[in-house]
Each structure stands twice: as C-alpha cells, then as structure tokens.
Amino acid sequence: MVLPLLLALGSWQWQRADHKRLWLQQLEQSPATTPDGALERLQHSDWVPVSFEIELLPSNVFLLDNRTWQGRVGYEVIVPIRVDEGALWLGSLGWIAAPAQREQLPGFELKRQWLPVEGVLSRPLVSVTLATTQIEAGWPRRIQSLDLEQIGQTLAVPVEPLVLHLKTAISDAIRPREQIYTGIAPERHVGYAVQWFGLALALSVWLIWIARREYRGEANER
Questions:
Q1: Torsions phi, psi of 70, nearest 5?
Q2: CA nearest to 90, candidates 76, 105, 73, 109
Q3: Residue 102 gets which letter from DSSP?
Q4: H or E element that contains 160
Q5: Beta-sheet pairing, 62-69 with 141-143
Q6: How far apart are CA 99 and CA 97, in angstroms?
Q7: What percent of the chain clears pLDDT 70, i.e. is strictly above it?
Q8: Taken in order 156, 159, 161, 166, is the CA torsion positive or negative?
Q9: Among the listed residues 1, 14, 2, 3, the one whose alpha carbon sits nearest the alpha carbon of residue 192
C-alpha cells in the first residue's frame, strides 16, 4: 500500500514541476496588446501578459484581506475595470498596508480614467463562496475571498471571471505587483519528486530482500 503512494507522490511532484515551467514560460511571453487577443490566449494559458488601455471604475473598491508584503499585513486593492463594451473585469492594483487598528481601513485616492497599463491576466486562482456576511458594508469594502458571484451581485452588473494584475502604478499608496507568485520553483518540485522516488526504490529493495529471505527460509525447511 505504501509503495504505490510513494510513486504517486513522486509523479505528482514531477507534474507540478512541469506545470511551473509552463507558467514561467507563459509569463515570459510578449504581452497581448488587445483585450480580444488576451482572451484568446487565456483559453490555453493560465497567465497572459498584457499591455493595453483600461478604464478604472474606482467608485467601488474592494480590499482583499490578509495579504502580506515583506512580512507586513495589508490588503490587495481590487476595482472594477472596463476594457470594452462587454461585462466588467476585475483589476488588482496591488498591495496597500493595513492601519494599526483593525476597524480602520487604508486611505487612498483613485479617479475614474482611461490609462495604458501593463499587467498579467488570469482566471481567479481561488473563488470560494463563503457566507454573505463576508462582504462588509460601505466603501471601500473589505472582502475575504474573490467570490465573483457575490461581487457581481454587489455591483449589480455582470463581472467576467477574470483578474488583471497590474504592474503599472496607479497610486503612490498602492504598491503594484512586481511579479506573479507561482509558488516554489520547478527545481524544488523535482527535488521532492526525487525524494519520493528514492523512498519508493528503498522500499522496493527492502521488500525484495524480505521476500528472498522468506523464500530461502521456506526452502531450507523443506
């Protein structure tokens, strides 16, 4: 029972390494210069670098809770954005520090405007539906997860399941995303895979040794 488990864990880590390499290749591609081009590439990619104009709609700002940067607690600033005449997208403007008091929210100013930006387009990595109380009252509004259905209900307009992570600075108070976090490097996944496969090999050798010893014992008894 243990041997198949070790082999499965090794195979899973190896597949994760291949997936991470693919992610890194996608992030190094030349940016899509139109929303349609970005959406077309997103059909077969997890991450799509982009460079085009968007319209910020900062009358409704969401603060995604429990986001840290260099050990400091803060929020990820999420606002609706428009790229064409269709449904809205969500734009992640970056990280902002949290005030010392939990009941206080960070202060910043944003204005509605069209502007050229660079960033990375993706589907939300996590979209967990929690209780309806997760979205607080007032604006800016603190949220605990990117529940797109609930965000759409709050905005009373359709919202595409898309997040544009901006690398372009929008406000002095908000730190834009420098790079997309893809977790541990592919090399570490390979290292973990080698460890699991090594344990599987050691277990196989031990099982063969046990089986041979028992066979010899039975032969001697005869």
A1: 50, 40
A2: 76
A3: T
A4: strand 159-166
A5: parallel
A6: 7
A7: 83
A8: negative
A9: 14
Give the residues across from 97 on adjacent strands.
74
What distance in Å separates the CA atoms of residue 97 and residue 54, rounded to the nearest whole number?
Answer: 25
The confidence score (pLDDT) of residue 95 equals 92
pTM assigned to the model: 0.70
Q: Give the confidence band of 129 by pLDDT, cuts at 50, 70, 90.
A: very low
**Paired tokens of 95:** 């990280």
Find where tokens 């890194």 sit. Answer: 24
Instruction: Express each pLDDT in 201-217 by its tens digit.
Output: 888 888 888 878 776 76
**Alpha-carbon torsion 40, 42, 48, 52, what sign?**
positive
**Six-digit token string for 30:** 């030349």
DSSP 42-100: HTS-SEEEEEEEEEE-TTS-EEEEEEEETTEEEEEEEEEEESSSSSEEEEEEEEEEPPS
Report the chain's terminal Cα–Cα distance, integer Å: 31
Q: Is the pLDDT of residue 77 over 90?
A: yes
The DSSP symbol for 30 reads: P
DSSP letter for each residue of 7-27: HHHHHHHHHHHHHHHHHHHHH
Q: How far apart are CA 35 and CA 32, in angstroms?
A: 8
Determine the Cα–Cα distance for residues 92 and 78; give it in Å rounded to an integer.
5
Three-state DSSP at 120 gives strand
Rounded CA separation 48/189 (Å): 23
Three-state SS for 188? helix
| CB atoms closer than 10 angstroms to residue 184 | 12
